[in-house]
Write a structure and sequence with these properties.
Elements (H helix, E strand, L loop, with lengths): L5 H9 L24 H12 L9 E11 L2 E3 L5 H11 L3 E12 L2 E13 L4 H11 L13 H6 E5 L2 H5 L3 H13 L1
Helix pairs in contact: 3-4
Length: 184
């Protein structure tokens, strides 16, 4: 797996999928004009290609990237506390999309897809948002939150789509794609 995400690691462990973590720093940028659902795929592809030389032949590389989208704006990881509070204040009372791009590569074979989940937040008070940020410090999370933490239990009104996609990996879809590569 070409990701250091502890949430992705946990999800793969829950699915009982054997993996090793191989990470190489990559820039999380994309070409101008790329459609929103293609952006996390582009970033994931670059993560996978960055570790290609570290993985033996015939091994499968799994790379993923998750973005949060409010309207047409991509919301990344917060820079600091004020940014996290600002992001969550903008998400409060609104619906946003969580898009995870996944790229699986075995040699020259590639399976790439994006999975989208709609997430609606209740209105949150400033005190609730600041309390969450101060306690959970969501600085390594796109959108400044983790659905499996307090804010997901209290702040999420509804989700439409894969819950685990919001955690960072649409595991059941990944497992089915891995089966295709194993049989190929």
């Amino acid at each position: 797996m070409a990701s250091a995400s502890p949430r992705r690691r946990q999800l793969l462990e829950w699915a009982e999928i054997d993996f090793e973590v191989r990470v190489q720093d990559t820039e999380e940028s994309w070409p101008a004009g790329l459609p929103l659902e293609q952006i996390p795929i582009h970033i994931a592809r670059n993560k996978g290609l960055a570790v290609k030389d570290q993985v033996g032949p015939g091994r499968i590389i799994l790379a993923a990237d998750t973005v949060v989208v409010l309207g047409e704006e991509i919301i990344g990881k917060p820079r600091d506390r004020d940014d996290a509070v600002g992001i969550l204040s903008r998400l409060s009372g609104h619906c946003h999309q969580v898009i995870t791009g996944v790229v699986l590569r075995k040699g020259e074979q590639e399976i790439a897809f994006a999975d989208t989940t709609d997430v609606s937040f209740h209105e949150l008070t400033r005190e609730q948002i600041e309390g969450y940020v101060d306690k959970y410090k969501p600085y390594d999370k796109a959108g400044a939150y983790a659905i499996q933490e307090w804010i997901g239990v209290i702040g999420i009104q509804s989700i439409k789509g894969d819950f685990y996609n919001v955690m960072g990996l649409p595991v059941s879809r990944v497992a089915r794609a891995l089966m295709k590569l194993f049989t190929a």
